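I am still getting used to backbone structure tokens and would like to learn alongside you. Would you supply a protein for us yourself, any chain you care to pick? Start from the sequence, derive the backbone structure tokens from it, and show both lines together. Go ahead whenever you are ready, and we will take it from there.
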Amino acid sequence: MEGGVHEVDASAFRECFSLAWRNPYVLRLAFSAGIGGLLFGYDTGVISGALLYIRDDFPSVDKKTWLQESIVSTAVAGAIIGAAIGGWVNDRFGRKTSILVADFLFFAGAVIMASAPNPTLLIAGRVFVGLGVGMASMTSPLYISEASPARIRGALVSTNGFLITGGQFLSYLINLAFTKAPGTWRWMLGVAALPALTQFILMLFLPESPRWLYRKRREEEAEAILRKIYPANEVEGEIQALKESVEAEIREEGSSEKINLIKLLKTKTVRRCLVAGVGLQVFQQFVGINTVMYYSPTIVQLAGFASNQTALALSLVTSGLNALGSIVSIYFIDRTGRKKLLIISLCGVVLSLGVLSAVFHETTSHSPSISRQETAHFAAYSCPAYQSASATGWDCMKCLKASSPDCGFCAAAADKLYPGACLISNSTVKDLCHGENRLWYTRGCPSRFGWLALIGLALYIIFFSPGMGTVPWIVNSEIYPLRFRGVCGGIAATANWISNLIVAQSFLSLTEAIGTSWTFLIFGVISVIALFFVLTCVPETKGLPIEEVEKMLEHRAARFRFWRKETDGDGKDSNVTV
């Protein structure tokens, strides 16, 4: 119950299954609200594959990197606004209403995107989707957290993370399924309306968060819901703890409605919570995860795999590993603890980003050379920049960087690693190259190191997903005092989406300006900084009731020996590691 510290020796993972058998109501709440995570994940993943075909349908998108980044990042910009207003909507109108509004926005955006006749309307649809995703990203884990018994709260909130990664995996499957269908990307983006409609209908029949109801003086409704969530021997203690928590806040403030930013920053506990929560959300994005999820097929092409279908199929592997990592998180989150998972995760992320940086360095520095003979074979279509230059020392990478007009690399028929032709990049030349059973490259060059890049991507996902993928959302759902939870959660989610926007809007430009290798190296350095941040600023909240987290943060100090348990004044373990 919420009033005391729970023993966490038993696996919360097993207890979740036990709870599902004894009280499926709690699991139904968690999974229904968690569809918001599915929407979040689907939008993150679907655009990566759809972008390959949007470029084919709209030549202006194919030729302008900033337009590709805009199609991806306008949804993120919408999510920033959605997350920012989501905190206020959550506190004013409730968690349930916020999820219903998010579903409506997502449904409208999906319909607009699927019918878009030009990039402008497509971008408008992306903004609508972003607004919905932004609200859902902070509301779903909050709703689940407030409707979960403390001892399995981490595992249940992790279901939201699992549905995020499950949505990403589903988006890659759907992308692959529609590669041969007329309208390709329109189906990919339009299918997103279905889970939004499904969640809207389900949420109509689910209750509001009991903690929000209690805060709004609707005690009878709140207690009725808590009696459905908690066993009979725990519910009275939970009701009493929640009542004391709300009354203490009201006595402190004199009113339960006045919340402002100055008050947040002046309150030591809330300030510490915001540093940890916002910091985790910012670092989650700055270690580069959404470059992998938004641009995974593009990264695969940069590694030397030319076909759209091949790029999507290989990206499906990384997405599947991401979903698998979320399942691992559900098992370990209440057993190992939040902080240990974060540290292990970041150590692996640093290692895998180092591998990716090294592989892309080798890929770009050892690309196939340009052959005069091969280029002369397509004399009418040879790249003007190659013709006007001395042509000595030209390789595939130099060919792909040529502009006015853009150029592509047609690999040698005998072996893609042999010297090939540098030609004008357009659909006619692409078909001509394919007609001779050659591979056509415009994003990256053929390389013997391409499979190592895939291994690096797989390692990155394997380490990122169980820790940095899910823990920031879990920590943000449980560290804030009840009075400030909606607003603080909105601030943290907004920080996440602003960071997401920065990364999404700059990744392709960075790879063009400094190269893919240096771009991944920058992410690696940021990951090292994130590791030190976790060691010094993030508390361990494993097994703590939400009301106890506030008391712990009031007196906490930075501790580096995260693997040791905190002891109380009598020298006994208190099950709290800070």
Summary: The CA atoms of residues 162 and 559 lie 30 Å apart.
